Description:
Elements: E1 6-9, E2 14-19, E3 24-27, H1 37-44, E4 53-59, H2 63-77, E5 82-87, E6 90-95, E7 98-103, H3 111-115, E8 122-126, H4 131-142, E9 146-150, H5 167-182, E10 185-195, H6 216-226, E11 237-247, E12 254-264, E13 280-282, H7 294-300, H8 302-319
Parallel strand pairs: 3-4, 8-9, 8-10
Antiparallel strand pairs: 1-2, 2-4, 5-6, 6-7, 10-11, 11-12, 12-13
Helix pairs in contact: 7-8
Keywords: Hydrolase, Magnesium, Metal-binding, Nucleotide metabolism, Nucleotide-binding
Binding site for Mg(2+): 190
Cofactor: Mg(2+)
Amino acid sequence: MTNKIYEYKDDQDWYVGSYSVFGGIRTLTDDELEFPLFDLAKIFRDEERGFPLSVTVLRYGSAYRLLSFVVDILNQEVDRNLEVIQRQGALLLVENGQLLHVELPKEGVNVQDFFETNKVRETLLIATRNEGKTKEFRAIFDKLGYDVENLNDYPDLPEVAETGMTFEENARLKAETISQLTGKMVLADDSGLKVDVLGGLPGVWSARFAGVGATDQENNAKLLHELAMVFELKDRSAQFHTTLVVASPGKESLVVEADWPGYINFEPKGENGFGYDPLFLVGETGKSSAELTLEEKNSQSHRALAVKKLLEVFPSWQSKPSL
């Protein structure tokens, strides 16, 4: 047990929590909590500590995110291996392959779809040739019953030029074009760095800020040059941004996005990561993204936040009929 204070905050949800004696969940918002507190209290109750979590809800938008927040604390504090899975709009609490709790949506679920085990798995095509990125998405969508492919499985597909002026336009171009060419459901992302004092640059040009074919070092040097006359760290605020788009034939595309706030340092720090990671100071921590472990980065980065949002809305989007 630690005295650590945990926090999750985005534009829809904001929670603060700790592992404490005889805790509970209280809300400072007028929103009605659709949260299975009573059932969870029975599952996690400790004879000496009661329900061992104290959680304050400052902003509430999703039972999925709140349950995930609670589960993350328990996994860290008492070495549990819990995970939250969404299926047909239901929340499943699972540990080591064992189902502990099911929270059904108010409208219920389709019994045949929910319990069907012989159903042919659908395929999700990731619009990338990066095997590392594909591996991350495969681990996520395998739990939802999808086989994951990437562009290396389709060597004859043409490259899609990213000619958009926004992250969403570029992600849409990739997802919708490849979906039309293959007839498959496609997930594409576009990410980059936005620096406030530069009006959002480098933005969609992040990978080629210093010119087409520029290296990470050249892009970093260009960014430092552009900020050379900005002497106060507070004036060097920035965000890493990710937009995810899922496109499927006959369906309106699904779009989610997320930002990871921080500041641009005066010099590179750290050996991990890539791109602008050595210059990007995470929030108020004083640590650069390149000083984080891969596990730390993947738990809080812009892409991680976007994926969390995607997982919340993807099952209901996929269950909608085609246009």
